[in-house]
Amino acid sequence: MANRILVALKGEAKGFFRAKSTVFWTIAFPLLLILLFGAIFSNTGAGKVDLYVQDLSDSQTSHSFVQHIAAIDSVNLIEINKTIDLDQYIKDHSPTAVLVIPANFAQAFVPGAGLNTTTLLVRLDPTQQSASAVYSIVNGFAEQANLAIAGGTNVITTARGDITNTQFNYIDFFIPGVIALTTMTTTAFWMVSVMTRYRNNGIFKKLTTTPITRAEWLASQILWQLVVVFISVGVIIIVGMLAFNTHMTLNAVAIVTIILSSAAFSSMGMIIARFIHDEESASAAANAITFPMMFLAGIFFPASQFPSWLASVANVLPLTYVGNALRDSMVYNNMSSAVGNMLVVAVFAIILFVAGVLLSKWKTE
Amino acid sequence: MSDTVIEVEGLVKRYGDFTAVDGINFTVNAGEVFSLLGPNGAGKTTTVEIMECLRTLTGGTVHILGMDVTKDALKIKNRIGVLPQDFNAFDLLTVKENIEYFGGMFDRQLPADDLIKAMDLTDKRDEYFKNLSGGLKQRTGVAISMVNDPEIIFLDEPTTGLDPRARRDVWAVVKSLRERGKTVILTTHYMEEAEVLSDRLGIIDHGKFIALGTPRQIIDTHGTGSRCIISNCDNSCSTALKGQWPTLESKGGDIIIRLENKNALPEIIYALDRSGGNYDQIQVTRPTLEDVFLALTGKKLAAEETESNDGKKKRSKRRGD
Known about the structure:
The complex is a heterodimer of chains A (365) and B (321). Chain A is an alpha/beta fold and 365 residues long.
């Protein structure tokens, strides 16, 4: 049995690598997405810079400080309520620059109180060009204030923090999404195309005359798809590192999620191919299902930014959980949430696989 | 050589209301080439696919090498070779790789190179399957169907859609299989093919055998006897013949006379000679299976290509249901 699965897998592998254009597009599609979206969202260009400010001091001094910054033309200032958990806020809103005014900010301005130093924290997305401008602006203000208060003594310092240290910027959000997307498109389209093609050109017929069983054949296809998916994932991670300086860890939860997702979407492909027999219509149907899912599952934009009705659509899509599990495990390092999402993916995988095996009969009556 | 390797008894297959196979009985002996002959949709493919354990049966029993198709499908599959109708292999694998791929599915496997040599494919060994001509693809298919060293080989319409040369090519392959002592089950809607290749054959129509035996037996039993054709008869010739054989047919200038007994031919020649008239030549034709089929069913067997394509469409549609 294992031998038959291996033989079938090897056969697919040889055929795959000989179809050069298939290899190219399988690998190139996610890369194009990353490079395209990465480029669009990494350079928001000249325009105005969004500066998020969380004023923990909430004093008259800090208010006037904020107003001064807000007066700058190129800065679009957005205040974050001091009661809000900043890390969560960053995850939800993907800002490129956040200024944190410390609680002891006002004390630095108390005349004659000696040197109550205070530190402004500017957290930036280093991949955004506009971010360094924000730092210069804030730093400039701090120096002016130092001059005014203490004659040049550094009462107010500016610390530069990294938003990526809190594990979030667009590309970090995006790359696990693209990996999730790849597990879906690669496997679903492969399965649809292979099953309709083999059924129509008679290869299934020939296979049924041999002792290989349907389950063995499906296993060989899913295993082969895992190989392709992991090649893609490897390339995506390497390109992410080289082009956008991302740091992802491919840990056990992420790997298991990728495997489960590939199984789930292979099975989805099997089900589509079961009902639509001709190759072109079947792949059009696969498109019709995967394309909206790509946008609704929060691959390109966080589902938390969606209006609530759209977010509830996202909640029933398997791809949403794949993306969440991968982001939680690879980027946010939030393992308990990752495992939760992974289990949802597992449930989807089991349901789809069982349905796929039961429905996809290759034996005729 | 008279071991029975296939036993089909009262085989029935229904799809809903439609009866595809309607109580067929036959046996095949080891080393025989047995053909199922019939028009498209007659039930040939359904019958062989039940024997190959690809389809379930509705009634009757089928034993292959002593094993019941409803119980020992996997064991049977390991011991038979099948070239399905409209056979295809993997486009981007070579001839050798394809043979090895399918070989890997069986419990036992012959070396691909031996089969390549046996099927005279040595030149094409490392050619991608998609680059082969129709005849070479079929030869590769036969090589693949022999990969598990089967005792019985099923060839389901192996020459349909091939050009005449490729068709002859496949015939040679079938003959070589017979020489190797393989039992071959062949389905075809080409008479000539069945007549040339088979030891025995069954003509099937509407799911039933309408004739079963050696080609010779069938022609002798159901045939209409030999006919004599005298081409380009002049008036005195035809008048003389008409006087003696009032039932003769005339087509253009040709006259066709059924030879009812062995004296008929000398009598015709004598009559022609005596009439003193002119004619081009005398020709005697033996009836073919085509004539038998026509006589038995009132329709032609090897229908026009377009018609057979239609038949195919219908069948594949039904198969998809």
